[in-house]
Design goal:
By secondary structure, the protein is mainly β. It contains 6 helices and 34 strands. The termini are far apart.
């Protein structure tokens, strides 16, 4: 081998052979990579999205276009078209010069390097453009589902606004009937709060109108979910006693009513709520603020508020005598007339106690003295008197029994008319003039109708103030309650 390597002719031949081989390899590679020899392919790309550019959305609304995507057929090297993502192919609808109306606009496109377009369907798009209009609508709230059993929905509170502006084309805006958000319920038993409730526009059939621009697009909503409730008057009652020298002159709660929560059956029996004041806490004349803690009535769950402030005024006790208060007969039976025979005047004199200011402005017409003769027959009867007095006024001697003597009898027979002549042919009529016994009390008027006289009883008078609160004495009579 060393012998051949030292031979110059051999080396020259070897170098020539290597050169020929290298030349051949270079030329073969060049031919294989030339465009003519390269491998070419085609590809179909479906649903290339049409992108809109240059559109003035503040002024116009793109109401419709007849295509949202195109189909493209492209060609190129396999490496260029097989390994390029579809989003590298872009189709654009240029609306820079678009005006209101319907028009047909050609599409433009861009392709990856080394790829050429064979065809594109469609190449043009029909568009309809309208001016943008805006209108305000009140925001409403709808619910789906139900709260917990026995609970009910209140009125939703929407923040920050109760209206929203809807922007659409004129033709679409005319279809909007309401702007509404929806709350999904699934057995909730407490107030529902949603920080971002999405709003949508709906037509009169309840179909959502797509493409509406709503401002604000979301609102905050609070939907009360509570047990059934009932608002009832607040009454003030009393326990304990005032000092013997004091009487109440005014009781003023800060509220006239309270709200009670519970199931319907429990609420049905509640007509008012009585809060109690302990009078033993009041030691001197003047006005005091008393805080009363309220507890839910039996069978209910909650009361609002749970405390109430009451202004309580007390005064030094005073007396006043009121004369000539008529005794009113109540409950006269059919066919009877009644007369108060004792006192003979048919009126009584009462000595009353209370705060000086209340006694000074006392109106006699607000004092009622009633003799209830219900169920009594004709004859003379001693009847207990029932006295009704204004609030915080009482009888000075409430332990004494007040009575009146009442005489009940059929009405007097009317005097007969003169005997008619034989030829008159008429029947005598009884006198229509009313007849009553002497000393009949004011407000009792017997009434005659033909031959069947009927006594018309006086208006019914309440006894709720009988035995009224006096000189710190605690009583359950409604005369000593304050409230509505």
């Amino acid at each position: 081998m060393d012998k051949w390597m030292k031979n110059n002719n051999f080396n020259k031949i070897l170098a020539l052979a290597i050169g020929i081989v290298l030349w051949t390899m270079v030329h073969i590679d060049g031919e294989s990579t030339s465009p003519a020899a390269a491998s070419m392919s085609t590809k179909i790309i479906e649903n290339v999205k049409i992108e809109v550019s240059g559109f003035d959305e503040d002024k116009y609304v793109l109401d419709s276009k007849d295509a949202d995507s195109v189909r493209m057929e492209v060609s190129g090297k396999s490496s260029d078209i097989m390994y390029v993502f579809s989003d590298a192919y872009r189709v654009t609808l240029d609306l820079s010069d678009a005006k209101p109306g319907t028009m047909r606009i050609p599409l433009s496109y861009s392709l990856p390097n080394g790829v050429r377009l064979i065809s594109m369907t469609p190449q043009e798009v029909n568009v309809h453009i309208e001016l943008r209009n805006t209108k305000s609508f009140p925001v409403s709230v709808a619910t789906k589902g139900e709260p917990a059993e026995g609970y009910q929905l209140g009125t939703p509170v929407i923040q920050p606004v109760g209206t929203a502006e809807v922007t659409l084309s004129a033709s679409e805006l005319s279809k909007v009937a309401k702007v509404q958000g929806t709350i999904e319920l699934d057995g909730e038993n407490e107030t529902f709060k949603e920080k971002r409730m999405k709003l949508a526009a709906y037509d009169s059939a309840g179909n959502e109108i797509k493409g509406a621009v709503i401002e604000p697009s979301t609102v905050s909503v609070e939907l009360p979910i509570t047990l059934p409730f009932k608002s009832v008057p607040l009454d003030i009652g009393f326990t304990g006693q005032l000092p013997s020298s004091l009487v109440l002159s005014r009781v003023t709660p800060e509220l006239e009513s309270v709200v009670v929560y519970g199931y319907k059956d429990s609420l049905a029996a509640i007509t008012s709520y009585e809060a109690m004041i302990d009078l033993s806490t009041i030691k001197a004349a003047g006005t005091n603020q008393v805080e009363i803690k309220l507890t839910p009535p039996a069978g209910t769950e909650k009361i609002e508020p749970d405390t109430v402030n009451v202004m309580v005024s007390a005064s030094e006790i005073a007396e006043r005598t009121v004369e000539g208060i008529p005794v009113i007969l109540q409950g006269l039976g059919s066919g009877l007339e009644g007369t108060v025979t004792n006192p003979a005047s048919g009126a009584v004199t009462l000595t009353l106690s209370g705060a000086p200011a209340l006694l000074d402005q006392l109106d006699r017409n607000k004092i009622s003295v009633v003799a209830d003769v219900s169920g009594l027959i004709a004859g003379t009867h001693e009847v207990s008197l029932q006295v009704s007095l204004p609030k915080f006024i009482a009888l000075s001697h409430s332990g004494e029994r007040l009575v009146a003597t009442v005489q009940l009898k059929p009405p007097a027979t009317p005097a007969a008319s003169a005997t008619p002549s034989a030829n008159s042919g008429s029947t005598p009529e009884p006198s229509s003039a009313p007849v009553s016994g002497e000393g009949s009390p004011s407000g009792v008027q017997p009434t005659h109708s033909g031959t069947d006289p009927v006594m018309s009883p006086a208006p019914s008078a309440s006894n709720e103030n009988s035995g009224a609160f006096n000189q710190g004495e605690s009583t359950g009579n409604t005369n000593n309650k304050a409230g509505t």
